[in-house]
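tl;dr need the bound structure. longer version: we got a ligand (iron/sulfur cluster) that a collaborator sent over and nobodys looked at where it sits. i said id run it. heres the input, straight from their email, havent touched it
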Amino acid sequence: MSENESACACTSKSSQVALMPSMPSSCVSESCCGASMEKASSMQNHEKAGYRIMPFVEEFIPTDAGDVPMIRTELTYGDILSNINVRLNIKRDDYKIASGLYAVGRPSKDSPVVVTANYKLSFDHLRKALYGRTAWILILDTLGVNVWCAAGKGTFGTNELKRQIGLTGIEKVVGHRKLILPQLAATGVSAVSLKKQTGFEVIWGPVRTEDLGLFLDNDMNADKKMRQVTFGLIDRLVVIPVEASLALKPAFYILAALFILSGISPDIFSFKIAIDRWPLSFAAVLMGIFAGTVLTPVLLPFVYGNAFAMKGLITGFAAGLPVALFWGSREGAQGMIALMLITVSISSYLAMNFTGTTPFTSPSGVEKEMRIGIPLQVSAVILAIILWIIAAF
Amino acid sequence: MKKLRYMTGVTTLKLDQDSCVGCGNCETVCPHAVFQIENKKAVITDPDGCMECGACQNNCPTLAITVEPGVGCAAYIISGWIYGRENASCGGPNGCC
Ligand code: SF4
Ligand code: SF4
């Protein structure tokens, strides 16, 4: 039964360090009555030193393969708050839950088994989609990475699925031999070899978890729309905070370098001139980051070009122009061109980086555009540095 | 996905129709509707829609499909250029997906 105990334990480091003292039995049993007392003791039997039962676990239900945690399908305030944190790239690392088998509602031997990754957001989406239904959820250990990325890396793969089938004893829990997998896991899971090795058949579920209810109601059939990946405005907006925050650290070094470059003057280095010119180059960098990580994703389908470096060049040009024209005019033509080049090269590079986040860019395509894009971006930066120094003289 | 398109003529996707048994797995798993089954054989109908995820190759029972799957991420490709394709990785745990 040990896998069930670990299934309810949070795997994040913090909670294992913070030992939760177990509640004295008297406070639970004496004040409660009937069913909830049973429930309370079902929870208590699963307490284990150094572990904590996750707040989404309602109780434990017995199966032929031991007790299985039954989870809530409504998200709590705490769930929503921490999901926002993940999106903002705060505490992203330990945002995983323990792998294993979970129950939704009071599933039977005939209930469907839905498989997902141990990334908390994937898990939360899934339990929301299963609201009011009964099902088993089998969670693979993907090191806290979402389904698609984990499938691409092979952690959401045939072997891990095989391992979890063995660990959980799922063949004793359900009578059928079918597992519903998110379609995007097909990159890592080979249905053909899983069937050969375990006897379990893979039913490819919809791409989006939201469609799961409809899929189940529809006798496990997905229409064309459910099978295709989209990358709508909301999907693009959601990834902006992560993209932008990843750009901030290198931006810090760039800004430090620009401060020094801004102060190079006829008297070698002038602090005063640096302070005077630096804000301009600062603005050009910020515009580049804005154009590359916000404007490009938002306007992605509307900006000209197939190559993202090209799209970033266009948005960078548009964003950099006001800074260079109105504020940069005091730096003369060289200064203005330098400012434009800074904005455009940063925007173009960051836009190119955005290919890593989109679900439709092929590695061959990215490599092709990088072979052309990177030399151009680097040349633009070198030219910008030279012009920016010249403009001070 | 018709609205968002990427580079054309670059995909490494190949299909050997002779070994195809028309099971339809590729059509099911492909997130970009690249395949269609016509006369009990798979046909690549939209090669430029392919993002080289490798799902079709991974789920073809007769190995009729080949594609060079990979991560379409700039940091990953740069590290591939520097350290070789086999040792490529994203920039740290938060680098990309
Ligand atoms: S590699 Fe992926 S996107 Fe390309 S055809 Fe195969 S399943 Fe479709
Ligand atoms: S998965 Fe392979 S055998 Fe099946 S239809 Fe596609 S190409 Fe043919």
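gonna send this back to them w/ a short note. Chain B has a mean pLDDT of 84.
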